[in-house]
Amino acid sequence: MTLNRKFFLGFIRIHILYHASKEEIYGVQMIQELKNHGYDVSPGTMYPILHSLEGEGFLKCRKVNVQGKIRKYYKITSKGQKILKESRQKTVELINEVMK
């Protein structure tokens, strides 16, 4: 993992939680979404993040057979909603401080 990716990992996790709070998400979709925001996230980075967020109880997973392949759809949990709310507050504080 490059230095930039390590540095922005928290932003990526917040971004994933945000989108999972709006609708079900899946890995390839989030890779593209993050690419639209200037992040270059590989599947080798994305899927461990999704599994980690699920393991920590922030996301829940639903498996669907899509053209013979199992696709995992993720949705935010109540625990994920709570950490997303806290992250939003911390983000506002950070932006207010660093943009002075």
From TrEMBL:
Residues 16-86 form the Transcription regulator PadR N-terminal domain. InterPro entries: Metal_resp_DNA-bind_regulator, Tscrpt_reg_PadR_N, WH-like_DNA-bd_sf, WH_DNA-bd_sf. This is Helix-turn-helix transcriptional regulator.
